[in-house]
Amino acid sequence: MDAQAQTVQKTVRQSPPVDLTKPYNAAWVKGKHIVITGGASGFGAAFVQRWALQGASIVIGDINTEAGEQLVQELRQELGNPNIWFVCCDVTKWQDQVKLFKEAVRYSPHGGIDCVVANAGVAGNDILQTPGDLSADEPPEPNFKVVNVNLYGVLYTTHLACFYLPRNPGSSPCSPQTDPAKTVRDRHLLLLGSVASLAPITAQPQYGAAKHGVLGLFRSLRCSSFVQGIRVNMICPYFVATPILIRAAKIILAGAELARVNDVIDAGTRFTADSSICGRALVIGPPAKAIMADDGQLVPSLTGEGEGEETGIWECYADDFQAVDTWTRRWVGLLGYLESAKGWTGWAKDMVAAFWASDRKPEKKSA
Hints:
The chain is of the alpha/beta class.
């Protein structure tokens, strides 16, 4: 990585690429208060079970009241952890999410939120490219539920996380130098992307567009969220056998190897437990051995031959600050200057004056 890219990484407090050979301690989640959307089934329920087992307190937001309440009851009895709650929440409704976060603060043992997981997602038959009867005067109105849940719901969750995480009592701004073994209070936003964030997905344009949007959100946030001291990470799972995998996808993928749920949970747990990981993304795919690419990165082997044990977890977008455009570099530098500068009131006044001068219309003179 060149010196300029390293400077950008240092300014935005991005940690080095994740060393997946280095063990972490899942017990580091103990005592953290976590909010997770879509936590009643699929990845969400698996995250809840893993983290509750380690002693975290968790608030589940999900539209499925029956499944959510049943999961809470079962885990409380099984684990003896009373700090698990359910709040009915439709992530596409702003007030539902506001209620979820307010309830989460009320339930919190220490009065704040350490981690927010934007996990809620749906898939379904996408009729965007199938307008129906071409002899009709106009096509039927499309259903954009997939985009509303997978993108707009994530944006609502992110907006609320950026409000509540910096208010977490006892927390400090994120830093790659943090010792996770000694850090309980945190400010962590974990985004659930998909392999569809990184590549096109056949017959699912809405899902692909939404998950590309989550990737864009992640890459933008990690350049500026350090101002609020929030660390932002993302996981991008390949196809996994969960309820979100629709029948058509199962037919297309028949006979192909899928990603493992345990690898998804492991990647999410590493991010949630290790408070020194900031601004990184992991893709989870079918298990494979590693080979060295031309750029020096370890990548999955397509032939089955390679080094070490098979793994399904890989770093993605590890060095993309090398190719970041000039505008973003300057913007990051500006944010860093604002944070460290002393007496920036004068600068703010000059900026206001500059904007005012550029927006004012010239006065008309009378003849």
